[in-house]
Design brief:
The complex is a heterodimer of chains A (382) and B (275).
Chain A lengths: L4 E6 H12 L3 E4 L6 H13 L3 E4 L3 H12 L5 E5 L1 H17 L3 E9 L5 E5 L4 H6 L8 E3 L4 H18 L2 E7 H5 L1 E6 L43 E3 L13 H17 L1 H4 L2 E4 L6 E5 L3 H14 L4 E6 L1 E3 L3 H8 L4 E6 L5 H9 L4 E6 L8 H12 L4
Parallel strand pairs in A: 2-3, 2-4, 4-5, 5-8, 7-8, 12-13, 12-15, 15-16
Antiparallel strand pairs in A: 1-9, 5-6, 7-14, 11-13
Helix pairs in contact in A: 1-2, 1-6, 3-4, 10-13
Chain B lengths: L2 H4 L17 H15 L6 E5 L14 E4 L5 H11 L4 E7 H7 L1 H10 L3 E7 L2 E2 L5 E2 L23 H8 L3 E6 L3 H13 L4 E6 L3 H5 L7 H11 E3 H4 L4 H4 L3 E8 L5 H11 L1 H4 L3
Parallel strand pairs in B: 1-2, 1-3, 3-4, 4-8, 7-8, 9-10
Antiparallel strand pairs in B: 5-6, 7-10
The chains are: A alpha/beta (382), B alpha/beta (275).
C-alpha cells in the first residue's frame, strides 16, 4: 500500500507530474513564457515513463502533432501561453470535430498581443470557449491552487478520454509559477478513464456511430481498423458528407454529448452559501485572495458566500441559477475587464445584481481589494 | 484498374471528386503501385493529407487515413510517426498546401529527417478554391488572382527540401508514369524524409487560363518541357527557363529522427533511471 506524499511544487510542475500519472505519453511543444517549464520538465520526464517528447517548429505544429499522436491511442498533451493559444485554435477545432482526445494547457499571460509576457491574466476565458470557428464542444478548467492543478490535470485527461473532446487547462501565470505543498494521492486512489475501444471487428466498425452515449468508439491507428478521419463534416462511417441532414446530426451529437455528460466534467465548490446575501463567483488564482476577503467579511458579520468554478466551460448553469435565487448581489473578481461575468449575467438573468472586481494591470489581487468590493456592495445595509 | 490495385482503394467511395482531365488519379495510382511493389500492409500504413484537391486522395485509399487542416499534414504525421515509429507514414499534399501555408512544416520535417514520405501533387494552382496562383505557378502565368499574369517568382520546392536536410528528393510527372512510380517507391523505401514532387495536370483552373485547356494538352506540355536532371546539369539557366527538370536530385543515407531519439534515450538510460 502506497502512502500519500507531500511535495513542494510549482503549478507547471504539477501539470507535468499529474499528466504522467494520468497516462500522458506524448507531448509536443514550443517555447513560450510562462508555460515553458512544462516542456522542459516533460523533455526529461516523459522518456522515463516510456513516452515521447518533441519540440516542434511552432505552436500550430505542436497542436497538430499532439492530435496525430492521440490517433495512435497515445494520451497526448501540448502546453502554451497567450499568443500560442491563439495559434492553436484551428487545430483545436479539428480535435473538437474529429473527436480526438487531447489536453491543451494555457498558462495565461497579459494580452492582447505580446502584452506583458511574465504577468498573470485571465484574459483567455472567452477564447477558451469560442476561440476556434464554428459551434464546437470544448472543456476548460481553471484550478485555483497548485494542488488543485494536479487534480485538475488528471481529471482533464479523464474527461478528454471519456468524452473524446479537447480539454483546456487554464492556469494563470500565478498558479503556473507559484510553489505550494501538494498532497500526492496514492496510486490506488486515482481513477483513470480510457477512451472506449471498438466493440466489433474492423469489418463492422463504424468510427463515428452513436452507440447511445453520444460518444463514438475509437480505434487506434495501426491496429487493423482502417478508417478515415476528416475535418469535413462526416457521417457515421467517417467519410465526408455535405448533406444538411448529416451536418445537423453530427453537430447536435457532438454538442449534445457535452450536455448529457455534465457529471463527467462539472466541478464547482461552494462555501458559506447557506445564508449568503452576497455571492462571489470565483475561478483561478483570484479565488485565493477572495477566500481571505470572505473570511474577513464573515468575521465582521457580512453574509458572504463563494461559488467557485473549476470547470469553467461548459459553464455550470443550473448550479449557479439555484444559488442566484437566494442572494441579492453577485461579485465576479477577475484578472480581466469582465469575461466570465458576461456568462454569469446571462445565467443569473436578473435574479440578482451582478458586478465585477477587475484588475487589468498585470498584477494579482490583494485580499483587501476584494474585501473593499464586498464592503461596497454591502453598503449601508449592514 | 486491375484487381490487384483495386484492393488498395475504397471502391465504394469512388468515383472521385476530381475534374475530367485531372492528373491526380495518375499520381494516386503511382503511389498504390509503389506500395504494392513493396508489399506494405494496409494496416501498418497511415496516409495524412492537408487541404486541397490532392489532399482528398487518402479518402479513396483503404489505409489508416487522416485528412487534416490546410498546410498541416506534416505536423499531424510527425505526431503519428513519433508515437508509433513502426508505422509507415505517407503525406499527400499539394503545391499551395506544402509550399505556402505549410512551408515551415516542410522545412522542419526535412530538417529532422523524420521517416515520412511526402508526395506533393504540383498542379501549379490552387484548384479547390477555383484557380488562384500558388508559389509554384510559373511567373507570367495566368490565374484568377493573376489576371495580368503572375508577378511572383516561382519556387523550386525540391531545392528547398534538399537544402533543408531531406534524404531523398525527386521530381516526376504524370506523363512519365513509370519513373514517377519508381521515385515514389524509392522514397517509401528510404529511411528518412523523402520528398517527391509529382507534376500533375489541372486543365480546368490552370490549363484553360494558360492555353493548355485539356488534360492531354498538359500531358504533352509535360512531355515537351521535361528535361532529365543529367541533361539539365549541362544546360545554361536561360535554356532551362520554362523547363521541368525531372529525376532524382538527392538520394543519401543520413540519421533518421526517431532512430536518433531512441539512440539518445538508450545512451542516457543511466540518467533516466534516476526516478
Amino acid at each position: 500500500m502506497g502512502e500519500t506524499t507531500r511535495r513542494l511544487m510549482q503549478g507547471n510542475e504539477a501539470i507535468v507530474e499529474a499528466a504522467l500519472v494520468a497516462g500522458c505519453r506524448f507531448f509536443a511543444g514550443y517555447p513560450i513564457t510562462p508555460s515553458t517549464e512544462i516542456a522542459e520538465l516533460l523533455a526529461a520526464r516523459l522518456p522515463q515513463a516510456g513516452g515521447r517528447f518533441i519540440q516542434m517548429e511552432d505552436e500550430i505544429a505542436s497542436m497538430g502533432a499532439a492530435i496525430g499522436a492521440s490517433l495512435t491511442g497515445t494520451k497526448s498533451m501540448t502546453a502554451t501561453s497567450g499568443p500560442g493559444f491563439s495559434l492553436k485554435q484551428e487545430n483545436l477545432g479539428f480535435a473538437s470535430l474529429t473527436e480526438v482526445p487531447v489536453v491543451v494547457v494555457n498558462v495565461q499571460r497579459m494580452g492582447p498581443s505580446t502584452g506583458m509576457p511574465t504577468a498573470p491574466s485571465q484574459g483567455d476565458i472567452m477564447q477558451a470557449r469560442w476561440g476556434t470557428h464554428g459551434d464546437h464542444p470544448v472543456v476548460a478548467m481553471a484550478p485555483a491552487s497548485v494542488g488543485e492543478t494536479y487534480e485538475a490535470t488528471i481529471k482533464a485527461f479523464n474527461i478528454s478520454e471519456a468524452l473524446r473532446v479537447p480539454v483546456v487547462i487554464l492556469l494563470d501565470e500565478v498558479i503556473g509559477h507559484m510553489r505550494e505543498g501538494v498532497e500526492i494521492p496514492r496510486a490506488e486512489d486515482i481513477q483513470l478513464l480510457e477512451r472506449k475501444g471498438p466493440s466489433t471487428g474492423p469489418a463492422d466498425h463504424l468510427p463515428y456511430a452513436d452507440d447511445g452515449t453520444g460518444v463514438p468508439e475509437m480505434a487506434p491507428f495501426g491496429t487493423g481498423y482502417r478508417y478515415h478521419v476528416t475535418g469535413l463534416f462526416h457521417d457515421e462511417t467517417g467519410f465526408p458528407d455535405m448533406s444538411n441532414a448529416t451536418a445537423d446530426t453530427l453537430m447536435r451529437r457532438i454538442m449534445g454529448k457535452m450536455e448529457r455528460h455534465r457529471d463527467v466534467y462539472e466541478w464547482t465548490e461552494t462555501t458559506d452559501t447557506e445564508d449568503a446575501e452576497v455571492l462571489l463567483v470565483t475561478y483561478g488564482s483570484p479565488a485565493q485572495a477572495a477566500r481571505s476577503a470572505i473570511r474577513r467579511a464573515r468575521r465582521e458579520g457580512m453574509k458572504v458566500g463563494e461559488f467557485r468554478v473549476v470547470t469553467v466551460w461548459p459553464f455550470p448553469e443550473e448550479r449557479l441559477r439555484q444559488l442566484a435565487g437566494g442572494v441579492r448581489e453577485i461579485i465576479v473578481p477577475e484578472m480581466n475587464l469582465g469575461q466570465l461575468r458576461l456568462e454569469v449575467e446571462r445565467v443569473v438573468a436578473g435574479r440578482a445584481r451582478v458586478s465585477g472586481i477587475n484588475r487589468t494591470d498585470g498584477d494579482i489581487f490583494k485580499p483587501d481589494e476584494i474585501y473593499a468590493g464586498i464592503r461596497e456592495v454591502y453598503g449601508g445595509e449592514r | 484498374m486491375n484487381d490487384k490495385l483495386k484492393a488498395y482503394f475504397r471502391t465504394d467511395h469512388l468515383p472521385h471528386i476530381w475534374c475530367p482531365g485531372c492528373g491526380n488519379g495518375i499520381v494516386t495510382a503511382a503511389i498504390v503501385r509503389a506500395i504494392d511493389d513493396l508489399g506494405w500492409s494496409k494496416d501498418d500504413t497511415v496516409f495524412v493529407s492537408g487541404i486541397g484537391c490532392s489532399s482528398r486522395a487518402p479518402g479513396y485509399l483503404d489505409f489508416n487515413t487522416l485528412h487534416t487542416t490546410h498546410g498541416r499534414a506534416l505536423v499531424f504525421a510527425t505526431g503519428v510517426k513519433v508515437a508509433r515509429p513502426d508505422l509507415n507514414v505517407i503525406v499527400i499534399t499539394g503545391d499551395g498546401d506544402a509550399s505556402a501555408i505549410g512551408g515551415n512544416h516542410l522545412i522542419h520535417a526535412a530538417r529532422r529527417n523524420i521517416d515520412i514520405t511526402t508526395i506533393c501533387f504540383n498542379n501549379n494552382i490552387y484548384g479547390m478554391t477555383g484557380g488562384q496562383y500558388s508559389p509554384l505557378s510559373p511567373t507570367d502565368s495566368f490565374a484568377s488572382t493573376a489576371p495580368y499574369g503572375n508577378a511572383d517568382r516561382t519556387f523550386d520546392l525540391c531545392r528547398l527540401v534538399e537544402a533543408a536536410g531531406a534524404s531523398y528528393v525527386a521530381r516526376g510527372t504524370t506523363y512519365h508514369v513509370t519513373p514517377l512510380t519508381n521515385m515514389i517507391r524509392r522514397g517509401l523505401e528510404k529511411k528518412g524524409f523523402s520528398f517527391v514532387e509529382a507534376m500533375t495536370a489541372c486543365p480546368v483552373y490552370f490549363g484553360r487560363r494558360n492555353k493548355l485547356p485539356t488534360g492531354v494538352d498538359l500531358l504533352n506540355w509535360q512531355r515537351d518541357n521535361a528535361v532529365p536532371v543529367s541533361r539539365a546539369a549541362k544546360m545554361e539557366p536561360e535554356e532551362l527557363a520554362g523547363k521541368i527538370v525531372i529525376g532524382t536530385f538527392l538520394d543519401v543515407e543520413m540519421p533518421e529522427y526517431t532512430e536518433t531519439y531512441e539512440r539518445l534515450l538508450k545512451e542516457h538510460a543511466a540518467d533516466r533511471s534516476g526516478e
